[in-house]
Amino acid sequence: MIAAICYLINLDKGHIINNTPITRKYSNQLKMDILNMNSVIFLKQFRTEFIFRTVVPYFAFFMTVFSVGIFGEDFFSGNMKYFARLTKDHVDVFKSKVLIIIFYSALVVILTLILGFTISAFVFKLSFDGLEKIVLIYLSAIIPVASFGLIIGIISLFFKNTTISIAIGIVSSIFLTVSDRLTITSNFSPIGVLGLMEKFRANNISLISLLIVNGVSIIYLLGAYFIGRKLFKNKEFV
After folding, report:
1. N or C: where does the chain have the smaller number of CB atoms within 10 Å of the terminal CB?
2. Considering Cα of 135, then 137, then 141, then 142, what sign does the dihedral take?
């Protein structure tokens, strides 16, 4: 995906220089970004294509599949029963899975950030101007998507068919991102940060806005954690 975006940007550079009809609908800011493309500007553009994309939120999709795998699939396959026997407290199994979800979410974000920055630095040019804010914006996606993944993971414990659980996660993520983009539900959504990125350019997003949406996501994460903790304490493993 990163290579494809780099290729398309290079094509757009040629179109802009030649003033082809396709580029006349581009804003002046977008044209300047493309003509002066560097590693930081690239990250601003790339974040909307994977980490912060709405309508088709790839990151949330990946987290859905991963969460259903380590919760629902492990539970109904008997793997969770095996691990539960290794500890006196079933809640320890749940805690480990929560940590895995947060780690996976962080890993995807950090790898995307590093790959995007490194590849774009080679293809275009290296820049550190404004990198701190872009890094902060990227990292702000870790907790929201982890909280969403945990919620879907807990839901998957009630559906033996993993396809149903994955479908619930995908449909929910699409509904939330579309709703967050068009309304004010981003203020109350576990993945409201995705809608926030759709409404504002990276340069116009304030630290307060990021803190608010992450604060809401932390509330969802804690709520799901306590529900899951109670559920695992009383759950009979198959």
Report:
1. C
2. positive
